[in-house]
Each structure stands twice: as C-alpha cells, then as structure tokens.
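To whoever is on call:

I kicked off a structure prediction for a single chain this morning and the downstream step that reads the tokens threw a length-mismatch warning. I double-checked the sequence; it's 293 residues and nothing unusual in it as far as I can see. Pasting both halves so you can look.
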Amino acid sequence: MNDQKICVLTDTGTNTPAAFCAAHDVRQVALRINYSDGSSYLSGVDITPAELVARFAQEVPSTSLPSPEQIRTALLQARADGYERAVFVTISAGLSATNQTVHLVAEQMEDFPVIVVNTRSIGVAAGMVTMAAVEMVEAGVPWRQLAQKLDDLSKSTRVYFSTKTLAYLRKGGRISETVYRLGTMLNIKPVIMCDKGGYYVVAKKTRGWHKSLDGEVRLAVEHASTLKQPVRLAICCSEGNDHFDELEAKLRTALAEKNIEIVGAVVRSNVSADLLVHTGPDLVGIGVQPSWQ
C-alpha cells in the first residue's frame, strides 16, 4: 500500500499490463462478454482472449460495462483493505458508459472519496493513464492535484491502432458502413485513433497491413513532436501479432532523428478480450504520452 493510502482501480478495457497491476495493487473491474445463448463472462476472469477468438467462428459476442454492484464491491473492498481514497481510471466516456456508472457509484460512497478519470481513450493508451495515476500517487502528488493532473495528461495521451479486418468495428458501430465497404474493396487499412471527445475517428488511410503499421509509427512520432517534451511509449499486440520489437525499433529510430527523448522502458501490453470483441483478433496499437514529471 502506498503512503497516501490511495487505491487505483481501472476497468479491463484499459489493457493495463497485468504485471504492473500485480506489483502496484491496481484493482481491475472486468467488462462483460455476452453471448446470444444467455451466457456471460467476465473479461480476463472467466474467458481469455484466446478463448474468445476461438469462438469467433461460431459467434461474435457483445460486451457490456461492469455492473454498479461490481464497481461498488471493488470500492468497498479497497476501503476494507485499508485504503482511504481511490482513483478510478476508465476507458473513454465516448465509447462506454463505464465512466458514467463509476461516477454514479462513487457519489454514493460514504467517507471514501473517489476521483473518476475519463481517459478519452482506450486500450494501452488508457492503461498508460492508469500507470501514471499509480506513479503520481506513489510520488506523493497531493490528492487535491490528482484530478486535474490526470485529466490534463489524458487530453495529451494518444492511441493509434490498426486491425486486419474492419468487420468487427463495423458490427460494433465503431465505423460507418461506407468506411467499411470502401476499406474492404480497396484493401484500405485505416489507422484509428480517439479524438478529443474520446470517439473513434480515422487518423490515416493506408493500403495494406504493413503500411498501416508504418502509418501508426508516423502518427505517433508526429504527436510526440507536438508535445515538445520527453515522451512515454506503449505498444499493444493481440495474440499472434507480435510486432513489439519491430515497432519499438522503428519508433526509437524515428524519435531519435527528431531528438525526442523516450522516458523509461516502452510498455508492452496484450489486448483484453473485451476490446477484441470490437476490433477482431488482429490488433496492433501504439500509445504516446508526455512524461508527467
């Protein structure tokens, strides 16, 4: 437990690395994965990404946010374990009602203040905000400053990701039918990002999978250049799409050419089952964040 006795919680959609969560007691609340036969699973608890992908041929399920009871139970457990306050980091409020639900539950907590952070992002970039929240708490950043610092950091953190097929994004309503049909016919693999409101937008149109990955690198470097300060990087890959070394090498080379410093190790993260539902089994993404210190 940190000296401030502040618990950091997050949802599984942030893809915060498991090893980091274990080392810093980050509590994860799972999103749900639901099938048409009525069965429901907690992402990363009752169903793994590999198990989910294996069932795609039979059915692409839907997802739902954690229940208010799940969230309340996690907060009550944190208090029972000796924590006195909490920071709860969620995926974009523009993509999920999780943030709103956490707000509603937090307002009902008695004698247990909770800061709720809307990362305006998803996946590994949202996980970077979770990790920064832990680092701020452990560094002794005062409680009254945490909300603003994390909100400012969320606004400057970006995610860029690509997937080999657009069918899953279309099914989940994340991209339009026009974008899907055009992309499929012309082999266009768009790089997706979250805009300032936390909604998916096409950041760059590329033709072919490898050009899409190169597009992610270029966009990440461009954003890093606008920050005018050292940056932190993260890479996420779904199982079977191991582009970690390739992308890290390209990012390091491109950023060095622009004299942009990378702070710490490049975070490597897998992709949670709940995120794969909406993107498909072939996902690769990059997160870029200004160093908060």
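Update from on-call: the warning came from a stale cache, not from the record. Cleared it. Sanity check on the structure: The chain has a mean pLDDT of 94.
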